[in-house]
Amino acid sequence: MEELRVDAYSPPEIAKRIAAVAEKKSGLDFFRMFVLAILAGVFIALGAEFYTLVVHDSGLAFGLNSLVGGLVFCLGLILVVIAGAELFTGNTLIVMGFIEGRVKARQLLKGWGIVYLGNFVGSLVMVLLMYYTTQWGFHGAMVGGKALLIANAKVNMSFLEAFMRGILCNVLVCLAIWLAFSGRSTIDKILAVIFPITAFVASGFEHSVANMYFIPMGLALKGQPDVLAAAQGMAGQPAMLGNLTIAGFLVKNLIPVTLGNIIGGSLLVGGIYWSVYLRQFSFGSLFRVAQVGFRLIFLFNPRELSPARVAANFSSFYSFLRRRPARHRPLPRDLTTLIEEETETKD
């Protein structure tokens, strides 16, 4: 039975809880995982819609407008954390369970795939619903114009720019999840989420699941004359929409941002905290985590995006994950064990 306490969970306790939850999440059946993933896509899309509505004509200075937008976008992750849903970006922390040996490579990749697809479905459902609400026509179609400008900006970044913004985004998202695991009440979890999520949105970082709503919404609205006119008025010049296509969405944004999200969450948060709290530090284990990261970077070659090439890279990556590193001696489970061993040695 867990000890009754009112203070927050400590970092080593958070690491153990996340590894245990990773094992439970990987054991969910397809139906539950997929439905919860759809819900997460809907929740994040609600945050994105709220963001678009609030910032389209706030009249504030750029910094304050970004701050307010970040605050209202927090709705999405608050719903995911409190109401319960499976979000791909947060689930990159499951890599902690994989490195611990509690989650198999097949479970990891299968879970990521199901959740990613479910998030996409949920986001597209919200695009459909929001389109037929005609909310985009509010305020002289300026709400739709802002949605169009947001989508267009996201498909006009370089691969490297989108990738780096994806890394930094999911560092903050996974830190928000990490902090939420320290809380013991609903208020604790909400407060833990607000500042990291506000920071990533205000900083202009890229979230793959949010973009599953933002960009398709722009694609749906680009044929509306009123929206085009409003966007032109807001931008002060005709909107250049050449990259706002399905191919531009996938190649210019979704693929690099998704890869960046995986690196930021699994390597820079999950991998680092695992090496600190769940295993004794060793260059061998850290090297393996780094290998996973670099192989993920090159899973999709941005210059060779043919299905055959992607499939070959994915097969190679899966084979790599299935190899388990040899362990010649048992390693301490966490820092508490390390401290106890050092005390016994001194005695």
The CATH topology is Glycerol uptake facilitator protein
Backbone shape:
globular
Unreliable stretches (pLDDT < 50, length at least 5) are: 328-339
Q: What is the terminal separation in angstroms?
A: 31 Å
The domain count comes to 1
Radius of gyration: 21 Å
Number of strands: 0
Query: CATH superfamily name?
Result: Glycerol uptake facilitator protein
How does the major sheet shape up?
none
Question: Could you describe the 3D structure shown?
Answer:
It is a single chain. The protein has one domain: Up-down Bundle (Glycerol uptake facilitator protein), CATH 1.20.1080.10. Helices cover 75% and strands 0% of the residues. The chain contains 15 helices and no strands. The chain has helices at 11-26, 30-55, 62-84, 88-91, 95-100, 105-133, 138-154, 159-180, 186-202, 208-221, 225-235, 246-277, 283-297, 307-322, 335-346.
